[in-house]
C-alpha cells in the first residue's frame, strides 16, 4: 500500500522573500487569490486528510483547501519552518550587509555553518523527517495533503531524491507550489515538484 503525499507551500505571505522562519505572518492579498488557484490544483487528488504547520500563513492556506474536501485541518507544530535566529525577518541583502563574513561562510558551508540563535539544521531535518514519516504512516492507502513551508518541503524532497543537502536551494518552491510524492514500502517516487 502506498501513501500519496501532497506537499504544498503556503500562499504568498507578508515579507515574502525574507528569512521568515517561524515569524507568524499573514497572507497578502495576492496570497489569498493564490489560494483559490491552489484549491483547484489539489481538487484532482482524492485527499482524505489535511495537515498544516501551526503558523498562520500555512493554516489559512490549509483551511481553504480542506474546505474543498469537507475535511478538518490537523495542525502540527513540527511542520513549522526552521527558526533562523538573528536572520529571521531579514532579506538576503540585509543579512549580507549586517553579517558579511557569516553570510559568506553560510553560503560556502551550508548546511554545516550555523546561524546565531537559529535551530541547528540537523535538528530541523530530524524534526521534519520524523513528522513526515508519521503523516505517511497514518495515511497508508490514502492521499494526504500537508501545507507547510519551503524548507520543510526541500528537506523532504531532497531525502526522497537522494540530493546532497548543500543543493537544497536548487529545488524551487514558489508560494502555493504543489509537490506530489508516492510512498511505497520499498521507497518513494516523486511525481511532481513545484507544480
C-alpha Rg, in Å? 16 Å
Query: What is the total domain count?
Result: 1
The CATH fourth-level homologous superfamily: Phosphoglycerate mutase-like
Largest sheet: 6 strands, mixed
Order of helices and strands: EHEHEHHHEHEE
Structural class: alpha/beta
Mean pLDDT across all amino acids: 97
Low-pLDDT segments, ≥5 res? none
In the sheet with the most strands, the strands line up as: 3-2-4-1-5-6
Q: What helical percentage do the residues reach?
A: 25-40%
By DSSP, the count of extended strands is 6
Strand content: 15-25%
Separation, N- and C-terminal Cα atoms: 25 Å
Q: Which fold name is given in CATH as the topology?
A: Rossmann fold
The backbone outline, from C-alpha atoms, is: globular
What's the CATH first level? Alpha Beta
Number of helices: 6
The CATH architecture can be named as 3-Layer(aba) Sandwich
